[in-house]
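The methods section describes the discrete structure representation at length, but only in general terms. An entry of this sort, consisting of the sequence and the corresponding backbone structure tokens, reads as follows.
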Amino acid sequence: MGKADQNKKAKLEKLLNTSFDLFTSKGLNKTSISDIVEKAGVAKGTFYLYFKDKYDIRNRLIAHKSSQLFTQAYDAVCRENCEEFEDKIVFIMNYVLDALAANKGLLSFIYKDLSWAVFKKALTTPVNNSDTDFLELYYKMLDESGHKFRDPEVMLFISMELVGATGYSSIMYNDPISLDELKPHLAQTVKSIIHNYIIS
């Protein structure tokens, strides 16, 4: 990588990191592009080289943070040598929930105002070369499972909506039960969803 490319990558990282700090401390609505560029120490024109507006950088931050989190979870499940597809999904689910419980600021940022469309884009649109397309890893796990599934994206959507909503409530409010108490219920339910989608 040449010096110009290194400078571009450094500015992009600076903008991403600064935006994340401001969005999680002040909130999206109270953060302006001027706030971001001033704190990042770059010109406003530089911001617009990479992003259309603050909502674009918010969505790409969700992509970046989600990619990092799911890549770490996938790497961890590979080290565990889980055999069954359902066990891999439950392991990844628990890994992500534990990571978000340890970083409630990240949970609030990723989860708030997050639709499936944004999340799907986040999982499949790398911000830089180090980001991973999680949907690609998901299909790899499906292929390795030895099963055929009907509507695998619907299966993933339902599972993630369930885990996201109930996990958020348990982590942020300890309601209706703690995360540790919730996880066995989620594991059982997610496994039931997976079994319901196996066709062979």
